[in-house]
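Entry 12.
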Amino acid sequence: MSEQRKRVVVICPGRGTYTKETLGYLKPHRMNQVSFLADLDQRRSADQQPTVSELDNADQFSTNLHTKGENASVLIYACSYCDFAQLDRDQYEVVAITGNSMGWYLTLAIAGSLDWEGAYKVINTMGSMMKGGIVGGQVIYPMTDENWLPDYDRMELVEGLLREAYYMEEVEIYPSIFLGGYLVFGGNKPGLEFLMKSLPQVEHFPFQLVNHAAFHTPLLRETSEKAMQQISSSLFAKPKIPMIDGRGHIWKPFSTEIQDLYHYTLGHQVVAPYDFSAAVTVALKEFNPDQLILLGPGNTLGGSIGQILVQNQWKGITDKESFSTRQQQNPFLVSLGR
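Predicted 3D structure (tokens):
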């Protein structure tokens, strides 16, 4: 039986994936994940926060409610966890898990480095850090052309703008996430204004992400320090399944040092760029999976993952068209949130 199973790498989504289109995502899972969802709801009630069930069962989607970090983080975690729990282990062998940005916290939970209590503590605490006011923000911008091939002129322009911004008073801009064919910037208000004014318009980009802070930049150093004060390393354990972090480093079940994992998660990962492209590239080259499985909610990472496959010329995928053709004939990327 095990020889017939597909070897898969599971990918956890990040912030911004629970949208108007995914409202009610948990309804099909309620019968199968009663204990898990009840546990989450109980913890949220104890913290005097809207429960996951209340948020998911809302009559309509509210940007002000559903996209706030203190609500979105746990809501996305619940959706991803339920999707993962539904995977048929007779059909799939999960060889590694990775994720984008907040998806690293979900990776820790799904791979077994955090139990239910620990996962809730980490995800809810980190998601609630901006409750008193969002620190900076994020702007996303494409670095490829319409065929998902590198646009070197655009890359050169962006590098020039970053150099220019470096010498400007009060302006702070940093690379935040390397997201396939996109670069996500993190910056303070003057930095974001500079980007929105200076980057040439490409379709609807540059685009500022709603209710996002300057994640994965030095602007969150204070957040990192607070996190280490509020979250104990005793919550962490060695993973049961290999994990790939935002540098492309692999954390293995037997060799993982828990203190190193703790300090990476609440230290480096918070204040330094998150290279999702590197994480997926390592997943491809080190584990050679039969498929990639993207957990829900939503499918917003689908394009970025496709672009990473193009960057690596993986299994004959050399541009957007060849990715689309492969997906129609024999999907390499399976998106559970579609």
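Annotation: Residues 61 and 325 are 34 Å apart (CA to CA). The mean pLDDT is 96.
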